[in-house]
Amino acid sequence: MSESLDYNDAIEICIEFIEENIKNELTYAVFTTPPINTSTEAGNNDFANVIKKTWKYIFEEWFKDSGYVFDETKLDFEYYDERCHPVIDTVMDIYVPILKREI
To answer: Which residues lie across from 28 on neighbouring strands?
Structure first.
């Protein structure tokens, strides 16, 4: 039987990952999703769609005009904090590792 992480272990791993990346001074572009009302079940579905649309925007629109490329040697991640609890203006952040585009 495989071991699974409990919530606190998973949070600790995320914190270690973020701290390590900050220490290594990696460069991330941070995108915050548009606010959405998630106080209803329909709102939760809308939030998932907003997240998908934000990812699509990043890779299909933002990168081509940004002067940056995706750093495939690093991890991207989604950051959910107190702003993403079921509320009227729910948002979350997407961290995308970037490198300056070579000319």
So the answer is: 97
